[in-house]
Amino acid sequence: MMSFDPLWETLKKKDITTYRLIKEYNLSRGMLDKLKHNRNVTLETVNWLCTTLDCRVEDVVVYRKER
User: Fold this and answer.
1) Number of domains within the chain
2) What is the predicted pLDDT for the residue at 66?
3) What is the mean pLDDT of residues 13-42?
4) Nearest-5° Cα angle at 3, 32 to 57
């Protein structure tokens, strides 16, 4: 399972709120909802997050084996 838990820590470190992601960076509310609930997103979205936040993939998403 892919988890976006690292994204929330990265946002906190960079002092970027989810409100700013929507208003200043034009992230859709629907995409934010997908990220919050660890739903499927494209690699294009992960790439956009990494580029926008100037971070690595590991700072956005982590793989956790399902049991």
Assistant:
1) 1
2) 82
3) 96
4) 85
CATH code, domain with 8 = 1.10.260.40
pLDDT at residue 67 tops 80: no
Range of the domain at 54: 2-63
Parallel, antiparallel, or unpaired for β 62-63 and 2-3? antiparallel
Q: Which residues are within 8 A (CB) of 28 and not within 5 positions of it... i.e. 6 or more apart?
A: 22
Q: DSSP assignment of the chain, as one string?
A: -EE-HHHHHHHHHTT--HHHHHHTT---HHHHHHHHTT----HHHHHHHHHHHT--GGGT-EE----
